[in-house]
Every structure is written in C-alpha cells, then in structure tokens.
Amino acid sequence: MQLAQKIIIADDHPLFRAALKQAVTQAIPGVETIEADSLPAVQEAVDQHSDADLVLLDIHMPGTNGFSGLVFLRGQNPSIPVVVVSGSEEPNVMKRALDYGASGFIPKSAPLETIGEAIVAVLEGEEWLPQEVADNLGEVSEDDQKFAAALAALTPQQFRVLTMLTEGLLNKQIAYELNVSEATIKAHVTAILRKLGVHSRTQAVIAAQRLGVEPPKTDLE
C-alpha cells in the first residue's frame, strides 16, 4: 500500500507542531505537511487541500471547545480521517474521541516513534488507541450521539457563531467580530437553535458544553 503524502497538523503550540512534523516525516518519508493553529485555520487548510489524507487535531485550540471541533470537522469533511493528539489523556476522553468520529487518539506524552506508528496504523485503515485503553472501550450515550449529529449539520459560519455564544458574546459583539450585520447573526442563531433542537441561546450553550473537555493541567504553554 502507498502511504499518505499529505497530512494537516493542527495545534496552537508551535513547538508541538514541530514535534508532530518530526514524527510524521520520520514515519512517512516524503510526506507533505500543512500546519494550522486554530479550528478556522484547519477548515481553511482542508478546503485548500481536499486531497489531504489525515488531520492531526488538538482539541484545545482557538475556535473549538473540546470535541465540538472534531465533530464539526468530521461532519464537514467525512472523507478525511481525523486523529486527536492531546494532552488530555484520561481514558474516558480517549474513548469519547472515537465515539465522536476520530480514527485514533494519540497522547501528547507518547514518544515520537509511537506517534509515528499510530499515524501509519490509521493510514492503513485501523483505529488506534493506547493498548490499555483500547482493551476497555465503552459506549457513548444516545443523547450525545444525537447532539453530535446535529452539530455536524451546522455550516462553518453557524459553528463559529455557536462557539462565540459559548464564550458569552452578545449578538452585537459577534457581528463585530465576524464583520457582518447583527440581523445576520440573529438569523444564524435562529438556524442554530432549529438544527440543535433547542429553544434558547442558553440551551444551545449548555448542549455545546456537553462536548467540552477540561484542558490538561500540564501542557505546552
């Protein structure tokens, strides 16, 4: 089998992006890597490189809240597998990543050689988790599955608006940040509520927070 030649590395820490790039190039000679430091940058990279073979995604980046970015990315680009690479290394977090569509979960504490082996395994069509976690997989709740499917149906702009809602921004502030009218934001909010099956901004925020993950206490700063 011919291994992938194009991988998107998404992490907001330049040092860790460099480490991932080293692991990738050691495991796959001749690979092309594209770097991104936020969820919007990842989506732009995917739009520009629709032939990408894999996305390596940190779940703690600007523009995303826990698994919401993973779910959104998989919904918008189902043909491109995503592997979560994170410092949040609790077994439950790793299992949920696969439940929400990831093809694997690589702990940031893993040696470069292990990271490379995991990437190659996913490119060959396997799912990858640390062995001790893979031996004890659980099931995601039906409610979380339904919400993940609804979240995946949002457009990129609607997802940005929802992310800003979870940050506590008002319509006027979101309109300013996105350089659109307040009426446009109101229309987006209405569409978001309809797609998520909720009746208020507060309910939408609470629902989105279900996909949250506590940031790791020890991570690159």
TrEMBL record:
The modification 4-aspartylphosphate is found at D58. Residues 147-212 form the HTH luxR-type domain. Pfam families: GerE, Response_reg. SUPFAM superfamilies: C-terminal effector domain of the bipartite response regulators (SSF46894), CheY-like (SSF52172). The keyword Phosphoprotein applies. Residues 6-123 form the Response regulatory domain. Keywords: DNA-binding, Phosphoprotein. SMART domains: HTH_LUXR, REC. The keyword Ion transport does not apply. GO terms for molecular function: DNA binding. One of its GO terms (biological process) is regulation of DNA-templated transcription. InterPro entries: CheY-like_superfamily, EvgA-like, NreC/VraR/RcsB-like_REC, Sig_transdc_resp-reg_C-effctor, Sig_transdc_resp-reg_receiver, Tscrpt_reg_LuxR_C. This is Two-component system regulatory protein.
